[in-house]
Write a structure and sequence with these properties.
Helices cover 66% and strands 2% of the residues. The chain is an all-alpha fold. Helix 4 packs across helix 8 (171-193), helix 5 packs antiparallel against helix 10 and helix 6 runs antiparallel to helix 9 (200-219). The N and C termini lie far apart (57 Å). The mean pLDDT is 84. This is GntR family transcriptional regulator.
Length: 254
């Protein structure tokens, strides 16, 4: 039999508060799809009766969900709390902070990106839908060519990279890509501002590479799509890091 003195204080099990239990139930309802993005939570009276809790306890539970960015509460509104299913941006900011605190360089981020996107390209080639390919081709035709000298080129090309991963169907890869998206976009814009504007020749080469990727995706050639995209990212990394190999994440995050 284990005596009380044998259990260290740090190992003591804390019983969850009632508000945490209520928040957990509501959270599970969002995860299971019983509450969808844009839905309003039932009014306070209904929730208090359903969970048999007081108003302060219920409001504490809602604050927990609000801190997790699962609900949006408009103070003074009679509509109550609204479900907001978050995307990768929910972890992008704290992840960026952790990278800054760890002293990570942009080179670290670019290498990680090169480990994610080629696999996504393979998955997309092997299981992508015609609708997915059409969406990406539309981005190439309409979203990216905002002018090769445009200050939005970093953002629009970054959008294409992120969407390609999302359409691969692998949720884990999509979340990681979403985490890295803001950092890589800011780095690309940083490079342009450092006196390395994109030349017309480089822009044309970029667009040809995107076109080549789409042909491989359409052909369902996963191995070739993966190899092509890895080469694309390797070349891009070499060009964008030239002379900036030691730049820290914090230096481009502002």
């Amino acid at each position: 039999m284990i005596g009380p003195d044998a259990v260290p204080a740090s190992a003591a099990v804390r019983s969850p508060k009632t508000a945490e239990l209520v928040a957990g139930t509501l959270r599970r309802m969002v995860v299971d799809g019983q509450l969808k993005d844009g839905d309003f939570l039932p009014n306070e009276a209904e929730l208090m009766a359903h969970f048999a809790v007081s108003r302060p306890t219920l409001r504490e539970a809602v604050r927990v969900l609000e801190s997790e960015r699962l609900v949006e509460v408009r103070r003074g509104s009679r509509t109550g709390a609204r479900v907001r299913v978050p995307g990768p941006e929910i972890v992008a900011r704290p992840a960026g902070l952790l990278l800054e605190l760890s002293g990570a360089t942009i080179a670290d981020v670019m290498v990680a990106r090169a480990g994610i996107e080629p696999m996504a390209a393979r998955l997309l080639a092997e299981s992508g839908t015609p609708e997915a390919f059409e969406e990406l081709e539309k981005m190439i035709a309409e979203h990216i060519p905002v002018g090769w000298q445009s200050d939005r080129l970093a953002q629009t090309t970054g959008d294409f990279h992120r969407r390609m991963v999302e359409l691969s169907g692998n949720a884990t890869l999509a979340i990681i890509a979403g985490m890295l998206h803001e950092i890589t976009v800011r780095h690309t814009a940083f490079v342009f501002k450092e006196g390395r504007p994109v030349s017309k020749a480089d822009y044309d080469k970029l667009m040809r590479s995107y076109g080549r990727l789409m042909k491989l995706l359409r052909a369902g050639d996963g191995a070739a799509a993966e190899a092509h995209w890895r080469k694309h990212l390797d070349v891009a990394r070499e060009l964008s890091l030239q002379g900036l190999e030691d730049v820290k994440v914090r230096d481009v995050m502002g």
